[in-house]
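worker-03 picked up job from queue 'complexes'. Input manifest follows; two sequence lines, order preserved.
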Amino acid sequence: MSSIINNINKAFDHRIRLGIMSILMVNEYADFKMLKELLGATDGNLASHTKALEKEEYIKVEKSFIGRKPNTRYNATKKGREAFKKHVEAIEKLLKQ
Amino acid sequence: MSKEEYLKDITEIKDMMNKSSRFFSLSGLSGILAGIYAIIGAAIAYYLVSTSGRDYLLLNGKIFRFILIDLVVVALLSIISAVILSTRKASRNNETLWNSASRRLLVAFLTPLVTGGIYIIIKITSHHYGLTGSLMLIFYGLALINASKYTIGNVRYLGYAEIVLGLICAIFPGYGFWFWVAGFGVMHIIYGSLIYLNHDR
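worker-03 finished. Artifact:
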């Protein structure tokens, strides 16, 4: 039981962060606008959550320009994917109990 | 956190994974319409050929040109209906028609389809048109299967059905017309209705 609790990851303990990781698990990358539309979050809110995940090194940020427009896109790191998988497995085990 | 909250989390994860990678607003009604257009188009072609006095087609003849126009009109009407009705369904689902999922859907769909289209045109210009119906069905089926991972799941079964029809059609090349009517007319109406009943309402 305690090992399951240990695998529940605090970093994913929020709807927006959970959503960001879910999207990045099945997409090679997603840009800021796509995340915003899918999650229905405001700019500031989304930015603070991506920063939190970035700090954990669960996602990587790439900044570039498309023409003159700045474009920010995110992808999940290997560390992030593994952490998220463990988190989902832990939730599933908890639900089975 | 309680069990209900974890359950909500799992639902949210699945929902986000699906929404971000699949385009769900493909209209079933537009599938039904495409089937009806195909049957009307085929009836017109049948009438043109049967009143021409011959039971075969001349590639440089007037009737062949009319049939080509007929085919292009059917294709255009089907595409226009699909775009209009899917836009409507998307706005109802709070989705946009042009998003990363629909872009991937389109690329996956068009790759086998355009390959097949070019191949068929090359064959026709070298006077090998006996298997045109079969080739259209097979490549269209492959396009549907390839696209199905980015949209509603049962589109894949329509793809398998088209491929099977196309292969049987290759055994009976003289009946290409009737297999074409079955594949592009009847099958579209059946699968369009299934999508309409399961997802549109």
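worker-03 released lock.
DSSP finds five helices and three strands in chain A.
The helical segments of chain A are 2-7, 15-26, 32-39, 43-55, 78-96.
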